[in-house]
């Protein structure tokens, strides 16, 4: 074979190898989904059933791919978030003085007046006051839960009632343990309790109810580009105005047995100043 033909063959072979590589290099890189963590309030199965359709909708509407990432419990999820493992959070655990500095920004919250913490007992319990809980087992979600630990435990400390703290892992687990008699009372988010009770046929009585606080919120990490953050915020806030979004919200309401409107509104950091004020005055963790 002549030298010119050998060179030509070699050139063609090189092009055959390089062209696909060049095409791959010029093709847009696949967008990695943004990790979206939801605070452990319910079982993982119910949380996924509730949130996955919502995040699929928001991803499509905003053009920002979101992927649900759940931890085994709220403490594990918070530790991952503290290390920057999530891009978005649905939580109310990040307003402590330490976590407030980590760079998560409030962008939206659920519609509705907010949440109230409660200390509750079964409806047939002989216990009628906080003082009667002295020395008894009381369930709390975790030691960094706001409505499921800080607020109700602060109330017990102010009432000078000493209880045995039982950590349950999530809000619904607290109520489930209360239902079967494993604990005497539970400190819980009143809205989660109400929906669980409706779904499971559980009758309860409140011994104490807190003032109203803003509900859990959707937060974005500071590394999320501003345009993507704004697109996600707009998609959440517009969900209850879009027929497709409304159907998804109605299905979500059925999952948790909600009897009130679901949806999201835009929100900002200053809306949660009542949390920061609470942490400045709470008796929890103070000697």
Provide structural commentary.
The protein is α/β, with parallel strands linked by helices and 287 residues long. It folds into 2 domains: 34-114 and 215-281, 3-Layer(aba) Sandwich (D-Maltodextrin-Binding Protein, domain 2), CATH 3.40.190.10; 117-209, Periplasmic binding protein-like II (D-Maltodextrin-Binding Protein, domain 2), CATH 3.40.190.10. It has 9 helices and 11 strands. The strands form 2 sheets. The protein has a 6-stranded mixed β-sheet with strand order 2-1-3-10-4-11. α2 (44-62) links the parallel β1 (34-38) and β2. α2 packs across α7 (226-237) and α2 runs antiparallel to α8. The longest helix has 24 residues, at 3-26. It is globular.
Order of helices and strands: HEHEHEEEEHEHEHEEHHEH
Please give the order of strands in the largest beta sheet: 2-1-3-10-4-11
The CATH architecture of the largest domain would be 3-Layer(aba) Sandwich
Q: Pairing-aware structural class of the strands and helices?
A: alpha/beta
Which short descriptors sum up this protein?
alpha/beta, 2 domains, 287 residues, D-Maltodextrin-Binding Protein, domain 2, 11 strands, 6-stranded mixed sheet
Short synopsis of the structure:
This protein is an alpha/beta fold and 287 residues long.
List the helices and strands and how they pair.
Blueprint: H1 3-26, E1 34-38, H2 44-62, E2 66-69, H3 74-82, E3 88-91, E4 104-110, E5 117-122, E6 137-140, H4 146-158, E7 164-167, H5 171-179, E8 185-189, H6 190-200, E9 204-209, E10 217-221, H7 226-237, H8 243-256, E11 264-266, H9 273-281
Parallel strand pairs: 1-2, 1-3, 6-7, 6-8
Antiparallel strand pairs: 3-10, 4-10, 4-11, 5-8, 5-9
